[in-house]
Design a protein that fits this description.
mainly alpha; 2 domains; two-stranded antiparallel ribbon; globular
């Protein structure tokens, strides 16, 4: 059994366990209020775990299959380049449709990218693959771009409603990341363009917020005249 088959088997087992636990949480009938609260906590926890698992599958599929479609990754005996391109586009479509759900976790995910880039900068080779060297300057540049990305996406919280421009900027970052992973000569420009898109929408958002705050401060408060006494 090779590593890919083992990883797929583990992923299927984890997915099956999540589905089984979620079904139990949904259809169980707790008799006390404490049991109902525990049921809701279980549902929320497995929704989060299932979302993370689905996100990893979609993102991994998009990045790896995009490499096959670009011709930069080793060809697969199972998936041809056209089929890989179609599946990669489908994965990106699902990622775009669920952008409001995963945006609140985006800054945390990218923070791990900073740590990984710093590890590669110190080791001088690709993470978990000493056979592939990597320039320390490239790893540090990637860490810097990821750091800027984290700074401008911290506002995407659970209650934050994404605007259309912000959704497009997040998808642009995802596409740039896939291109950076698969095409080495475009790694910095591709990730920089995605980061630049997020910086632009961040500046627009804060500029609009400052204008609204300035207007609210300058707006005169209504005054009421004292009643006329006769």
């Amino acid at each position: 059994m090779n590593a890919a088959t083992l990883a797929a088997l583990i992923l299927a087992l984890v997915g099956g366990a999540l589905v089984s636990a979620a079904l139990y949480a949904l259809f169980g009938k707790p008799s006390t209020s404490r049991g109902k609260n525990r049921k809701q906590e279980v549902i929320n926890g497995f929704q989060l775990a299932g979302g993370i698992l689905l996100g990893c599958v979609l993102m991994g599929s998009f990045v790896s299959l995009a490499g096959i479609a670009f011709g930069t990754a080793p060809p697969s005996p199972v998936v041809s380049r056209p089929i890989a391109g179609i599946i990669a586009v489908a994965s990106l479509t699902f990622i775009a449709l669920m952008v409001q759900r995963w945006a609140k976790h985006f800054a945390g995910w990218i923070a791990w990218g900073i740590l990984n880039s710093l590890i590669m900068a110190s080791s001088g080779h690709l993470l978990n693959n000493p056979a592939i060297p990597i320039k320390r300057s490239l790893a540090l540049t990637m860490a810097g771009l990821c750091f800027v990305t984290v700074l401008v996406t911290r506002q995407f919280t659970r209650t934050y409603k994404l605007h259309l421009a912000e959704k497009f900027a997040l998808i642009a970052w995802i596409v740039g990341f896939a291109l950076a992973v698969n095409v080495e000569q475009f790694s910095v420009p591709a990730l920089a363009m995605g980061t630049f898109a997020l910086v632009i929408v961040w500046l627009l958002h804060h500029s609009k917020s400052r204008r609204l705050t300035h207007r609210s401060i300058q707006r005169p408060e209504p005054t009421s005249d004292p009643p006329t006494q006769y």
